[in-house]
Write a structure and sequence with these properties.
CATH class of the domain at 25-97: Alpha Beta
Number of helices: 4
CATH architecture of the domain at 25-97: Alpha-Beta Complex
Structural class: little secondary structure
Strand content: 5-15%
Shape: elongated
CATH topology of the domain at 25-97: heat- and protease-stable fragment of the bacteriophage t4 short fibre, domain 3
């Protein structure tokens, strides 16, 4: 296979000489991408990309990105408002992006039912979770009881000695009938578990996210 010779072959370049390459045109100011490196893409080749770390930029310098990035990102995760004329790059540090349960202007599908799931840059979930009593499955505890009984004995003989009769108040024979009385057995159910939080993070790979600005 040979390479066409521009001097002898009719051909059309992907972009006029000196203009913006297609790779830059295909990205939109405000767009977010997952990135594989620790340095930002070459600006000359691929346009202005910055880290998705909530950094502040001037709207006058990057008007298209400022218009496309929702104002809610200004104070997402409790960040302070950068003030009029400024905007923040979306802050995706330490969070897992998920699709809105209702796209803007659309209806809910209730795949994630919490109210924050339809709010852009809304945040939910937790890295570690401590189970509450209400969250535990209903369950029972086994008890080991050695058992015992109270029958005729010193107490009965003392009663006979004082009353001169082997018949109890209820008509039973105190010498032959087992009698029970209130008694402590020492039975107890021990607590178990440490009450610590458990891992709530799925298998995760951590990579940078980048945001396209104007230029």
């Amino acid at each position: 296979m040979t390479t066409p010779n521009p001097a002898t072959t009719d051909w059309v370049p992907l972009w006029p000489l000196g203009s913006t390459p297609v790779s830059v045109i295909s990205s939109i100011p405000g767009e977010i991408k997952m990135w594989s490196g620790q340095t930002l893409p070459n600006q000359t080749k691929y346009g202005k990309w910055v880290w998705a770390d909530g950094a502040i930029y001037a709207a006058a310098t990057y008007p298209e990105a400022a218009a496309n990035i929702d104002p809610a990102w200004k104070t997402a995760h409790g960040l302070s408002d950068p003030g009029a004329g400024n905007f923040r790059a979306p802050d995706l540090r330490g969070v897992v992006p998920a699709g809105l349960d209702a796209m803007p202007g659309g209806s809910r599908v209730n795949r994630i039912t919490r109210s924050v799931a339809i709010t852009i840059c809304g945040r939910g979930g937790e890295e570690y979770h401590t189970i509450t009593v209400a969250e535990m499955p209903a369950h029972a505890h086994g008890v080991t009881d050695p058992q015992h009984f109270h029958g005729p004995g010193a107490g009965t003989l003392f009663l006979l000695y004082n009353q001169g009769s082997s018949q109890g108040a209820d008509g039973t024979n105190l010498l032959t009938t087992n009698r029970t009385a209130l008694a402590s057995t020492g039975i107890s159910i021990q607590n178990n578990g440490g009450g610590g939080a458990h891992e709530n993070l799925p298998p995760t790979i951590f990579v940078p996210w980048i945001v396209r600005l104007d230029g």
